Amino acid sequence: MYKDWIKLENDCKLCLKCRLAEKRNNVVFGVGNTKSKVLFVGEGPGENEDLQGEPFVGRAGRLLDEMLNEFGFSRKKNIYIANIVKCRPPNNRDPLPEEQEKCIFWLREQFKLICPSIIVCLGRIAAAKMIKPDIKITKEHGTFFKKRNLIFMPTLHPAAILRNPNMKNEAISDFSKLKSYYEKIL
Ligand code: SF4
């Protein structure tokens, strides 16, 4: 178990544990306040994220930031954002189960150092890995799940909202629930 964030980040950035290392430009370790009570988890980096080395920086990322800011959350201030896999899957395909299994080691280490009170899973892939494999994201988003004394909440992936803007109100409702929970644990 890591005790030092810098060492963890440096080691992760040298990782060659799976084939996603072969074509990456950057390992996308994560961004935000490492003392946050809220940890957001996505599935993996896309093209912009791979090029810039930061999660959620394309159009979907801007939408995520906009919704976060509406509720007083910011990656610069009071949340941390990371992914299940830290290197970009080719052509933005879903990360394979074996890639997720190898890479989740890094997320677990991040989790142990951050000690968040709630994990918000962005989209089906992250929610299936973190909460339960058969999650129905369109029905169960915004629900609070308790697992091993930790609270998880799945929500819609911002890329899915860009494809279907009608879903935005549902995501806003999830963020509103998150905000209420956050105010209770402050
Ligand atoms: S995706 Fe994860 S496990 Fe695979 S090489 Fe990148 S950091 Fe390592």
Q: How would you describe the shape?
A: globular
Q: Which kinds of small molecule does this entry bind, naming each only once? A: iron/sulfur cluster
The count of domains is 1
Percent of residues in beta strands: 5-15%
- Count of strand segments: 6
> Helix share of residues?
40-55%
Low-pLDDT residue spans:
none
Strand order of the largest sheet: 1-3-2-4-6-5
What is the quaternary state of this protein? Answer: single chain
Which fold name is given in CATH as the topology? Uracil-DNA Glycosylase, subunit E
- DSSP helical segment count: 8
Biggest pleated sheet = 6 strands, mixed
Q: Pairing-aware structural class of the strands and helices?
A: alpha/beta
What string, H for helix and E for strand, traces the elements in order? Answer: HEEHHEHEHHEEHH
What does the average pLDDT come to?
97
Cα(first) to Cα(last) distance is 27 Å
**CATH class descriptor:** Alpha Beta
What is the CATH superfamily? Uracil-DNA glycosylase-like domain
Question: So, CATH architecture?
Answer: 3-Layer(aba) Sandwich
Radius of gyration: 15 Å
What would you note in describing this structure?
- The protein is an alpha/beta fold.
- The protein has a single domain, classed as Uracil-DNA Glycosylase, subunit E (3-Layer(aba) Sandwich).
- Helices cover 43% and strands 14% of the residues.
- The protein contains 8 helices and 6 strands.
- The protein has helices at residues 5-13, 47-52, 59-70, 97-114, 124-130, 137-140, 158-163, 168-185, and strands at residues 31-32, 38-42, 79-83, 118-122, 145-147, 150-155.
- A 6-stranded mixed sheet has the order 1-3-2-4-6-5, with helices on both faces.
- Residues 12, 15-18, 20-21, 27, 85-87, 99, 102-103, 106 line the site of iron/sulfur cluster (SF4).
- Iron/sulfur cluster binds at residues 12, 15-18, 20-21, 27, 85-87, 99, 102-103, 106.
